[in-house]
């Protein structure tokens, strides 16, 4: 192995992955994904879709998930810096409703593995960021679910972009309308 370093998070299943960077005076090279290396660290799955988004400073996207077609995700930042968050929605999990966040940037080149049945979101900390991720299931537009990013029952301590406050954030109408985790639990009969 040796091509990647894996940091286990306090929430079981979440992993922060740091690739090995091969650099010289020309620049650098790294493998952003290698099935054999990932399998060796317990990420043994087939990714079927790659997505990429671009956002400006202060954009907050999330917290999203798919209800009946959940996805494992391997996320990274190609340009800029984001604070990326996952919320455990696995029924019966001892960390259900808990969150973990990690700063991902083009500089640190870290990736965040988020298993199925987690809500996911991020906030852009730099002037601009490009965010890329692999998924193990296709996007199903009629299967979208979400949690309110500011739900006090989850209590995410969002890192704010420098010079900005919550009032300055750019959040979609859809992301303002999600309900909190208590409503989610009622809907699921939990």
Question: How is this structure best described in words?
Answer:
By secondary structure, the protein is mainly beta. It is built from 3 helices and 14 strands. The strands form 3 sheets. It has a 6-stranded antiparallel sheet, with no helix packed on it. Strands 6, 8, 9, 11, 13 and 14 form a 6-stranded mixed sheet that branches. The longest helix is centred in the C-terminal third of the chain and has 8 residues, at 181-188. The chain is globular. It starts with a strand and ends with a helix.
Q: What are its keywords?
A:
single chain, 190 residues, mainly beta, six-stranded antiparallel sheet, 3 helices, 14 strands, 10% helix, 41% strand
Looking across the biggest beta sheet, what order are the strands in?
Answer: 1-2-10-7-12-5
The secondary-structure element order is EEEEHEEEEEEEEEEHH
Low-confidence stretches: none
Structural class: mainly beta
Strand content: 35-45%
Largest sheet: 6 strands, antiparallel
Shape: globular
The count of DSSP E runs of length 2 or more, i.e. the number of strands, is 14
| Count of helical regions | 3
**What value does the average pLDDT take?**
96
